[in-house]
Amino acid sequence: MQVDVMGECLSSIKHVVGEQLSGGSVVVVHEEPHPQITGTLSYRPEETGGRQREKSLDTTTQASGRPISRFTVARRLHGGDMFARRPVRCVPLTPAHRRRRSLWCREHRNWRDNEWGRVLFTDESRFSLSSDSHRILIWRERENRNHPSNIIERDRYGGRGVLLWGGIMLGSRTDLHIFDAGSVNGTRYCNEILLPYVRLFRGAMGLQFLFMDDNAPCHRTVATEQLLESEDIERMDWPARSPDLNPIEHVWDFLGRRLGARTLPPVRIRELRLALQDEWAAMPRQLIDTLFLSMSRRCETCLVVRGDHIPY
Fold it and tell me: Angle at the Cα of 45 (from 48 to 279), degrees rounded to 5?
């Protein structure tokens, strides 16, 4: 990324004062831009680690005209307890979304484990053959991951890949469903998800079963509502734009990391489908149970930040 050396990143390091630079000059970092350092730092880590891809160094300069390499600036930032990390990606939240999230968390903050255990959390996720990260890094301080300045809000991810659906329950999970090509409308959602998967869990759990899905358009069609009513499936009220409250999001992250750790990552759609099925089947049950036990903490954390993004 391109880092303005005297911009927001450096101005936050207020305690790095009087460090010696090469050549005998002393740099003093203030909250306001200081004329002793100017320029732009280009930081491009390689895909597998911290080595620099380009041998030609972009440099900053001191007032004396002597160049300062990006490695020196990086060391100074690191010495100020700042680290290069990927920004958090979250969906945009309006004040109305935050109020609705806070209300939902107040209603569920005191739920016990057995109450969460009757919920089937579900979601769709898209997996791409190519990474969408573009290796974007930001310099931030410890315990500052969810500060608004360190968050990128976005709705969609591009790239050629597959759309899949899954559900998790305390001590159990659904099979992983991978959609064929084409958009998912209400009819496909009923025929491919609700009838073969959700109805099966409703039959096993009985009346205590509670079904969670988000507010995607295909989830709120007339056909979907009628099918849920005819099958006597109770749906959990869910606040819009709240993937951080849904524990299955961590499952998608787990699958993504498992795919990335493979010696031979999938390069074709068929390989990607098979790899996702294998990793889903191999997912440890303890992971799912741990995620369910985190629901009360999620609610409390969301209330503390008044419905804003939470670090889950």
Answer: 35
